[in-house]
Design goal:
This protein is α+β, with helices and mostly antiparallel strands and about 400 residues long. The protein has 15 helices and nine strands. The chain is about 45% helix and about 10% strand. The strands form three sheets. It has a four-stranded antiparallel beta sheet with strand order 1-2-3-4. A hairpin with a 6-residue loop joins strand 1 and strand 2. Helix 3 packs antiparallel against helix 4 and helix 8 crosses helix 12.
Length: about 400
């Protein structure tokens, strides 16, 4: 027969300590009166079923009683207000006051989008202190996985990480006694189909280059950024990195390109333009690999020479400038790419296809993963391997075919 647990119960202002049916230790105290006439109740718990668990809740109870004795009205009001706050109120405040200091502007924009689209929209109305692991699992995680428009696992993990970080902060701030996200389970990776990267086929590469260099009868290029697109395809740089490039970043003698800046589009956070698009040149690139040099092949150099003939406004000017010699925009550059791809009758592609095409071509020419990773500016070779795994496997298969002929 199980031993009966002894409970210690005192008056409302002293509190009580007892064990719940599941073995958790619990301390509870009543204090003050709410505006509706009901008493305030504060509860502390510990999942340690030994006497150490009892000591933990006893210490928390004693500390809280000391707070009450020092200033009972302020404590009562604070506890009442805590119990009224919703997930939406708390997580948006956490974003605006905590995470905004920790992230790059574009990273903050993405986090804000995740919070609004998947957390606030689904559990934002719930009380912060009363949200259960089951609600987060069903209304956020499972809904993202199995809803009408299923999300990728990376998107689901971003939502999980966001709400988990928020609740960890609430726990550290003593807003809550327990983080419900710790009991939430992410779906396994094998439940998702890995999306293969899109690179141009050899035929598409030729059609794309032909479209980029298309001229009217008077010899004028149809697409002013045409040679710029071929240049990107032959260097593998990101669109933002390409736009940020200046002529001074080209080392003609070494046939190298210096990558140290990146153009990003974020939002104005204050002032009359709040919410509108803001273009920023970052003195660091997207990946942790940071500053890097990219070798220039013959085609890339020829493209630079062609661009220089038409748009050169000095060494400090932008290589892919607009017609006025000013820095171009991501939206304008992407629009130009889409127009060229349509003219070349190439479907289901975006500007990142140029980068993937460059990487794929390197693998096809037996360049090792480490070198490819360094040129692309990935923070680890693992990222490169995971991104181009199917291409790497294809190349290994071709190598084995040659070994069969030995």
């Amino acid at each position: 027969m199980a031993k009966k647990t002894t409970q210690t119960r005192n008056s409302n202002r002293e509190g009580s300590i007892f064990k719940r049916a599941n073995g958790d230790w619990c301390a509870k105290i009543q204090y003050g009166v709410k505006p509706n006439g009901k008493p305030y109740i504060k509860t502390f718990t510990s999942s340690d079923h030994s006497t150490k668990g009892r000591a933990v809740v006893s210490k928390k109870l004693d500390d809280f009683k000391a707070l009450i004795r020092a200033n009972p009205e302020i404590v009562a009001k604070a506890e009442y207000n805590k119990k009224q706050i919703t997930v939406q109120e708390y997580i948006l405040k956490w974003l605006a006051t905590v995470k905004i200091n920790d992230l790059k502007p574009t990273s903050y924009d993405r986090l804000e989008s995740t919070v609004n689209n998947h957390i606030v929209s689904n559990i934002g109305h719930l009380n912060l202190l009363e949200v259960t692991p089951e609600q987060i699992q069903e209304l956020v995680i499972n809904k993202m996985q199995n809803g009408k428009n299923p999300s990728s696992r990376s998107s689901i993990k971003k939502a999980y990480d966001a709400i988990n970080a928020c609740y960890k902060y609430a726990l550290a701030s003593r807003m809550i006694e327990y983080n419900p996200v710790t009991a939430v389970v992410l779906p396994a990776i094998h439940k998702f189909e890995k999306k293969e990267i899109r690179a141009f086929t050899n035929d598409e590469k030729e059609r794309f280059k032909k479209a980029c260099t298309y001229t009217y009868n008077n010899g004028v290029l149809k697409y002013k950024l045409g040679y710029g697109m071929i240049f990107i395809m032959n260097t593998g740089i990101r669109a933002g990195e390409a736009i940020a490039l200046k002529w001074s970043d080209v080392n003609w003698s070494k046939k190298e390109l210096d990558i140290s800046k990146n153009v990003v589009e974020t939002k104005h956070r204050n002032g009359k333009n709040k919410g509108k698009k803001l273009v920023v040149i970052q003195d660091f690139v997207k990946s942790q690999a940071g500053h890097r040099t990219v070798p220039l092949n013959k085609t890339a150099i020829e493209c630079l020479k062609k661009i220089k003939e038409d748009r050169y406004y000095g060494e400090d000017s932008f290589i892919l400038s607009n017609q006025y010699g000013k820095m171009n925009t991501l939206s304008n550059t992407r629009r130009m790419f889409n127009e060229i791809a349509e003219f070349a009758e190439i479907k289901n592609c975006g500007m990142h296809t140029l980068r993937h095409t460059f990487a794929s071509t390197m693998f096809e020419n037996n360049v090792d993963v480490k070198t490819v990773s360094e040129i692309l500016g990935h923070s680890t070779t693992g990222i490169t391997y995971d991104t181009y795994i199917h291409i790497i496997k294809e190349q290994k298969a071709k190598v084995m075919e040659t070994l069969d002929e030995i």
